[in-house]
Fold each of these.
Amino acid sequence: MLQRLGAEPLAFLCFFPHLIRMIYLDNQATTPCDPRVVAAMLPFFTEAYGNPHSAEHVMGRTAEQAVETARALVAGLIGAEPREVVFTSGATESNNLAIKGAARFARSGTRRRVITVATEHKCVLESVADLRAEGFEPVVLPVRPDGMLDPDILRAALDVPTLLVSVMAVNNETGVIQDIAGLAAMARAAGALFHTDAAQAVGKIPIDVVAQGIDLLSISGHKLYGPKGVGALYVRRRPRVRLAPLFSGGGQERGLRSGTLPAPLIIGLGEACRVAGAGMQEEAFRIRGLRDRLLARLRGGIPGLALNADPERRIPGNLNLTFPGATAEALMRAAPQLCVSTGSACSSAAIEPSYVLRALGLSPDQASRTLRLAIGRFTSAADVDGAAEALIAAHASARGEASGIACRR
């Protein structure tokens, strides 16, 4: 039947998911919309569908009020003022606006250096690299084998007058949590702005933009059980951070992000932030327990399994694992019921070992044998046990397949 469909087994299962119980462990790529989020959004698609910028009538004012309530909920989760939250289409746009916007506003100044880290998301690395053509000096710092940025390396880089430092709060592949407060303090002491891509952090670990000294912070809705296509950028108001907008329009969002606001998506983001803030501590405890259970079972069934990056300074749900003697591709092929990944979803089109893992010092061979497992809010103990069983069986099968190929050669 697969031959008649012309489909791979994974594609086949997408059409007939009832034939096998899928186990989703890719919550760093995206999370399912929480039912509470869906319920909050639905009326604004079909009933209260007014344009939030049409303040002349009741429908418009209803949407506007709901958007502002959502803005306050997003701000509350990160310790900001509501007016410091600018809605965007997601973290990629937020990162571009923060980095390019800060540089372009200050283009006539003397500070030309923009610093980031080798393990950042592609949109940050490419935004910083793009600024070279505009007369800025991009600097990409290395990380230690544990995935952490050495503060002494940042301190040395800041000896040259610097405009902006951008460091991801939580890495999207390894789950490593950087010392954002310490790094931001160093940047501020050197007279530089500090931006953090917090798409993988917000809603999972506590964030306080004031206490941590953050000037700019990016959020993605679909990473915290909200809808896709919406995000936010925190822009500090006092002392004021100034940005040049990326594009022209009607001047919405304080003139920083023109365009009609997608009210239903923004309301979903606000509800996702409310839910995350209310249950973050309990959720982290439960997810950490499931992660430790999964790791213990995998280690018991796969000797030589290696956990990459710092084992403690990581978000509760992340495991980045290198498997001995079996490629990630072979493992996923042998366990099609598992939704796992080899790294960032935004880099999945690139047929090459993860640049994040290479920055940690892994060889191309090691990187090719690495999977990212990400436990989330709706992952159950049965999911974890089923995933461990499937991966152990897949590993045995993949190693046997590799051994057979080697023998035939």
Note: The first strand starts at residue 23 and ends at 24.
Amino acid sequence: MKRVAVTGIGIISPIGQSVEDFWQALLRGDCGIGPLTRFDTSAYKVKIAAEVKGFDPTQHGMEASEARRMDLFVQYAMAAAHQAMADSALAGTVPAERLAVNVSSGIGGIETFFRESEKLLTRGPGRVSPLCIPMLIGNMAAGNIAIRYGAKGPCIPVVTACATSTHAIGEAYRLIRHGYADAAIAGGSEASVNPIAIAGFTNCMALSEQPDPMAASLPFDARRAGFVLGEGAAVVVLEEYERARSRGAHIYAEVAGYGATCDAYHITAPDPEGQGAARAMTLALEEAGDDGRQPLYVNAHGTGTPLNDKTETLAIKHALGEARARATPISSIKGATGHMLGAAGGAEGIAAMLALRDGMLPPTIHLDQPDPACDLDYVPHTARPWQAELALSTSLGFGGHNGVLAFRRA
């Protein structure tokens, strides 16, 4: 089996449109949540979101004419891939047939779908754009990235709702580990802050209706009442470890393990015992060769919904055992970024790797009233020095999809 290194990272997020801006904002405890600006919210119960502000695709390697032919989720993905590929200096060093792309979206081009549906209903079928389908289908982030970088290896985006980018990275890791590719561009993107998504998530009782941005996304807090919708993209470049070393690439971390399971329980609610999520954590730790004694950090899914945070706490205890779970620092960055849906796992995986790199843990902001059912060390309020050797990044998606990545410090 081959080892797999991370040699490039890129991110577009509500708290930063570069990796270092994102990371410093996390460590400061910044919050990217604010009033919704994309549409009139007067008829909506939810009036806040974590929007990407001031995004200009021409500042991220795209021509304006090119960007107009892409849904916003594809633009975000292209921008994050542009950063990650520049960071990795991979271009031109790997045969086209050995470069894979696994960049996915949980929802895809819902903005295009909404806009073109309005045209259909108000102006008739002749006014629907001929680019409607190529802009809205969820594989187009991967397709456009593959075209940009001439990647002719496997290009197989996966969709697992909120676990999408974790599974995309995990499956790319397996492609390299088992010899099907030498390198991969992997991650996820989402751009769903629009009327139909806000209405749909609100009516299935997933979103917080709290109007105060500083009291809305509350992972592991007793007051939590739903997540805040976020957006953005997170992309990493994975590479066979010895190949990366031989060309002198900077290695952020090693992808050392991956676990993927399903609750097979409910389309939106997690298994209340957390067994599926626990098994994904256990699989990732076992593949990473964890002996139970290495300093560990967990970047939790931590959505701030009543069921998720309680269930995830149980899952961590099942996977680690009570004593190690209590000794392990855990944090969720969703108080800062909101829930980036299909991009969340990628952003959180990047945060986990940077925590390993710098020996600093991003905090769980807004954790003012701890829930007795969430009784582990969630690194409240402020960043904390801690040098872990392993980090887990956990993602739990609608449909019961569980994905966990284990990163080892480079």
Note: The radius of gyration is 20 Å.
Amino acid sequence: MELSDVAIKEARARLKRAGGQVLGVERMLSEGRECKDILPQLSAASRAIEQAGLRLLAAGYAWCSEHPGEARANGCSPEELEALFLGVADHGVA
């Protein structure tokens, strides 16, 4: 399945944001900051990673829907897409 440049750009931006938040959490831990300050940042990083994965999944689904023959030939059957989606829903992204 092919991913559009837009989907890749959006996912990378979210991952970059998550990376910055994780570095911020590490810094807060080393500074001895309180849990109430740290946990919202950790949660935000987790959401950013999840959103990056969901964006890629949505883009892949769109491509496979628009190119069903090519998608199936490349191992992207509706059943495999469903398994990817359910894996994300059951376990989160990453």
Note: The chain has a mean pLDDT of 86.
